[in-house]
Specification:
330 residues, alpha/beta, TIM Barrel, four-stranded parallel sheet
Length: 330
């Protein structure tokens, strides 16, 4: 069917709270240019880039470099800066300095922050803290405790849990919200699409947190429907094709997701809920006013062909899947 024959719907553009564009430092995996092209192809008008670059996004110079590239390509990047210097130290960054430079939030994504005292101090900054948990449920549990402690001490902490994937974690977050703790959480499409039973011998399905059980998958769906999970992000984390095709244990963690996320979410949740999780809630949490619109052919089907992706990484577990909802880029 020709593009002009599509029934076109205009919807608010999407905002991704969690991507890895790899630049500076790992441009053989992705660049800001290719990442932006991939984001646009997926219907996104803005993304939050994570700080595990090289050098780490823990200083104003790196933030400036990222924002200058985004401006060059006329795209909104909302940089997430590191919580601690070089990600692996226990010395907090200068939150005020980095926010002034353009950071919209702070995360140690790539290396979980496991020191409770340092985490509590970070929450007391009252900046948006995006928590990367690997030993997921255990870390979610004590971080909720630190959030409550910061509140009890008179602070106004802001805590967002990244890439939540396990039932136990979702139960903990749901209970915390019922107790009045204003935390937020995201999941990613791979956690409501696949389970560990889908994993093959290559790294196509390898990410961190790892895929869970069917029970976990159903819990993610339930969390999206009842509001426990506020956001669908992609955790777009490209590697070279050679890296991802290594045997599972040798392959790096990460999955591309910008160009498939809308369709996967739309098929699960419908349009209203998808926009809540991918457009409205990210804007609210981040405090941004991005009013761009996109065009989509909601009822048109397409076959995922990673070779046609705009991202550098052409390896995807979604290859060959039939999805609905085509983003129209004029």
């Amino acid at each position: 069917m020709a593009k002009k024959d599509y029934k076109i719907t205009q919807i608010p553009s999407l905002i991704d709270m969690h991507v890895h564009f790899r630049e500076p430092g790992f441009t053989y995996k992705e660049t800001i240019e290719t990442g932006i092209a991939s984001a646009r192809a997926g219907g996104f008008a803005g993304v939050c880039t994570m700080p595990n670059t090289s050098p780490v996004t823990d200083n104003p110079n790196v933030i400036k470099q990222i924002l200058e590239k985004a401006k060059k390509y006329k795209f909104e990047i909302y940089p997430i800066a590191a919580i601690t210097k070089n990600l692996d130290s226990l010395e907090l960054v200068d939150f005020k300095e980095l926010k002034t430079a353009g950071a919209i939030g702070f995360s140690n994504d790539g290396l979980p922050l496991l020191d409770k005292d340092v985490f509590l101090k970070a929450l007391k900054s009252e900046e948006l803290i995006l928590s990367h948990c690997e030993n997921e449920s255990s870390e979610v549990s004590w971080q909720i405790e630190m959030f409550a402690k910061a509140k009890e001490e008179g602070f106004k902490p802001r805590l967002h849990f990244c890439h939540i994937s396990k039932k136990e974690s979702i139960d903990l977050i749901r209970n915390a919200k019922k107790q009045g703790l204003k935390i937020t959480a995201e999941t990613a499409p791979h956690y409501f699409t696949f389970t560990r039973d889908d994993i093959d011998t290559t790294g196509r399905y390898k990410m961190n947190p790892a895929l869970g059980s069917e029970i976990d998958k159903r819990a993610v769906m339930a969390g999206l429907l009842d509001g426990t999970i506020d956001v669908i992000a992609t955790d777009h984390a490209p590697h070279s094709d050679e890296e991802k095709l290594k045997p599972y244990l040798e392959s790096p963690n990460g999955i591309t997701g910008l160009e498939t996320a809308f369709s996967l979410s739309y098929e699960l949740l419908g349009l209203e809920k998808t926009l809540e999780k991918m457009a409205y809630n990210p804007r609210r949490i981040l405090g941004i006013n991005n009013k761009k619109m996109i065009k989509v052919a909601l009822e048109e089907e397409w076959i995922v062909a990673p070779s046609q992706f705009k991202t550098k990484c052409k390896i995807s577990p979604y290859k060959g899947m039939k999805l609905k909802g085509i983003i129209i880029n004029d």
